[in-house]
Specification:
By secondary structure, the protein is α/β, with parallel strands linked by helices. The protein contains eleven helices and ten strands. Bound molecules: adenosine-5'-diphosphate and magnesium ion (MG). Magnesium ion (MG) is lined by residues 40-41.
């Protein structure tokens, strides 16, 4: 579904992404792991159109989409999780979701102004959709809460919810579990699994929690120092000496134990 070909992104002398080729197959939940500074986020940012690559290309369903703007990729169904935008922080959770299909909040207002005749129906439709998403994410009780009052984990769920307001095909989640408690992490994993199973979403997930990755992702791709180090099933990856060396370092014994636990 997404093919990355000989992709590089350099920041001056830093080769953040260095000649990476990989595939995210349709219908997978692909994990992307690696130590801090490995280039994972930069890779996501190039794929999602935030950065132009230094060289190389990104294909979506066989079409070259290198250098397209984020909103153009968004229209083609390629989404990455949004940081919760500041201007939405004081808005209720439900309204945050209702903003998404039009992209920019400003556009939504212009649209409302000029096509006021259609607004009521459109708003009711968006509201119903938002409520369905909140129900799916077990956030219904927070619909009228300001987004800024959510916990870190609830904000992550809301980010995931934003991808559900449009017909996403492939969703990139960057550290979806960071700062999230165990219970919410399980809820996030459930939501990802259900979106995958029920709506056919393809995912690529960056996450440091190996347990989360092992339970959710197949395959798992490992990056280190801007390059792809290994790819395989989670238990193969976690038993791979090169991966343990590069990625886990002194935590290797735990990783091996985790890999055994996952079997
Ligand atoms: P990861 O997400 O795997 O932790 P990043 O992609 O964030 O890694 O970073 C990879 C490397 O690129 C790091 O050395 C980082 O400091 C550098 N880097 C990332 N973004 C920028 C930027 N905007 N400007 C300069 N260097 C950057
Ligand atoms: Mg990162």
């Amino acid at each position: 579904m997404v093919a990355v070909r000989s992709l590089s992104k350099w920041f001056g002398g830093i080769h953040a992404v260095d000649d990476v080729s990989l595939d995210i197959a349709r219908g997978t939940i692909t994990g992307l792991i690696g130590p801090n500074g490995a280039g994972k986020s930069t890779l996501f940012n190039v794929i999602a159109g935030l950065y132009a690559p230094t060289s190389g290309s990104v294909l979506l369903d066989g079409e070259d989409v290198t250098g397209l703007a984020p909103h153009e990729l968004f229209e083609r169904g390629l989404l990455r999780t949004f940081q919760l935008a500041r201007e939405f922080a004081s808005l209720p959770v439900r309204e945050n979701l209702m903003m998404v299909p039009h992209g920019q909040p400003g556009e939504n207002l212009v649209d409302a102004w000029f096509r006021s005749g259609r607004v009521a129906a459109r708003e009711a439709e968006l509201r119903a959709k938002a409520d369905e998403v909140l129900d799916f994410l077990t956030l219904s009780h927070l619909a009228d809460e300001r987004a800024q009052n959510l916990s870190g984990g609830q904000k992550k769920l809301l980010e995931l919810g934003r991808t559900m307001m449009v017909d996403a095909k492939v969703v990139f989640l960057d550290e979806v579990g960071a700062g999230v408690n165990r219970t919410l992490l399980a809820t996030i994993a459930d939501a990802i699994r259900r979106l995958h199973a029920e709506r056919g979403y393809t995912f690529c997930v960056i996450e440091h929690d190996m347990d989360f990755i092992a339970r959710l992702c197949d395959p798992v791709i490992v990056m280190a120092e801007g390059a792809v180090l290994a790819e395989g099933r989670a238990e193969e990856i976690m038993a791979n000496d090169a991966v343990i060396e590069a990625y886990l370092g002194t935590g290797s014994r735990h990783a091996k134990l985790d890999a055994e636990a996952a079997r």
